[in-house]
Specification:
Shape: globular
Strand order of the largest sheet: 1-2-3-4-5-6
Strand content: 15-25%
Number of domains: 1
Oligomer: single chain
Length: about 250
């Protein structure tokens, strides 16, 4: 490689650092700001719930716990919701429906997003240190450089991608997402696993002295946890649009 080619390569690297790396840092900062909003909302919910449930069974409560810079949890009776901010910034694969939006097609940089995941566990899984128990991703929030966002999630957690270029995140919208996630977790009941899933047990699993080795538990253990998220909603939307276009 001659000096000219080397200089050109260096300029390319420096250009990527000044543009792409700075862009990703900005998105990280935006995502962290949103995550801090979530923490504040969870703390307020804990206080509001304590006031609303005075005189109710003391075991029925909402308890918030800050688990560090990128993780927080809230226990709601027998459920535990873990909010986890990923420290990296992502771009969508080429088959993702987000590329249908003019907002993204006109500027690829709008597609880069930070992610906040929302997992639903049983609170007993942590209380009894059942390390093999299952948690379920019930929603994830995507935030880009413009503080535009959308949510992928189970059933009512999902919003259509069409709002991505116009929906600016706010404490009110985040509160709606958090409350919807909690409602979904409370309605997402623990099902009895199929008999064949639990008909054999090991001595270790039944050893009462080793709590972490108890039988594996999960709300949908042995059942499919289908992806009934906004991908399906978007597909239905696209089909409706095509039908309207064919009729016109």
């Amino acid at each position: 490689m001659d000096q000219t080619e080397q200089d050109s390569k260096q300029q390319q690297i420096f250009g990527m650092l000044s543009q792409k790396a700075v862009l990703k840092q900005q998105i990280y900062d935006n995502t962290l700001e949103v995550f801090n909003m979530i923490k504040e909302i969870l703390g307020n919910l804990e206080d509001d719930c304590a006031n609303a449930l005075k005189g109710v069974d003391s075991r029925v409560l909402m308890e918030y716990n800050d688990r560090g810079r990128h993780e927080a949890e809230i226990r709601v009776a027998g459920d535990l919701l873990v909010f986890s901010m990923h420290t990296n910034v992502f771009e969508f694969d080429r088959d993702h429906n987000i590329w249908k939006l003019s907002y993204v097609r006109e500027d690829k940089n709008n597609s880069y997003c930070g992610i906040i995941n929302i997992y639903n566990f049983l609170s007993d899984s942590f209380k009894y240190n059942r390390l093999d128990d299952l948690g379920y991703l019930i929603g994830r929030i995507f935030i880009n450089r413009d503080m535009h966002y959308f949510v992928e999630g189970k059933r009512q957690m999902g919003f259509l991608y069409n709002n991505f270029g116009t929906s600016v995140i706010s404490p009110e919208s985040i509160k709606q997402v958090v409350e919807t996630a909690i409602s979904y977790a409370l309605e997402f009941d623990l099902l009895v696993p199929p008999y064949d899933m639990v008909k054999i047990a090991t001595v270790m699993q039944l050893n009462t002295k080793i709590e972490s080795s108890r039988m594996q538990t999960g709300k949908r253990l042995g059942f499919k946890f289908n992806s009934d998220d906004v991908l399906e909603a978007q597909a239905r939307h696209d089909r409706n649009v095509n039908n309207i276009n064919q009729q016109s």
